[in-house]
Amino acid sequence: MGLIGEVLLLPFAPVRGSAWVIGQVLREAERIYYDPATVRAELAQLEEQLESGEIDEEEFDRREDELLDRLEIGSRSRAGTDEWTSG
Fold first, then answer.
1. CA–CA separation, 55 vs 61, rounded Å?
2. What are the b/e assignments for 12-32, b being 16+ CB within 10 Å?
3. What is the pLDDT of residue 85?
4. Alpha carbons 54 and 31: distance in angstroms, whole number
């Protein structure tokens, strides 16, 4: 881009920096959200809630499906990342 371009874009540096930080936070949040260990812990907690009577079978099934979907999406995205980085 060159020195002149960098000087002209200097006023936008805080915006570019903020966008980068937001992107990093979003990636970390998604990593945690789709992490298999996190999902498995939530499944175990859900099962405990069912056994203790806090939720009924219908609520359990609905939330279990959501968690299993998260687990599948996370597995697919990790497999895609592994293929991309190993190739």
1. 10
2. eeeeeeeeeeeeeeeeeeeee
3. 45
4. 29
Mean pLDDT of 55-79: 93
- Please give the model's pTM, rounded to 2 decimal places: 0.68
d(C-alpha 39, C-alpha 68), whole Å: 8
Diameter of the chain measured on Cα atoms: 67
Give residue for tokens 């190993």: 86
Whose tokens are 């000087």? That residue is 7
Q: 49 is written with which tokens?
A: 């809630």
pLDDT top residue among 80 and 71:
71
Helix axis angle, 57-86 to 13-34, nearest 10°: 120
Please report where in the chains the tokens 């009577």 appear, as a residue: 53
Domain boundaries, the chain: 13-86
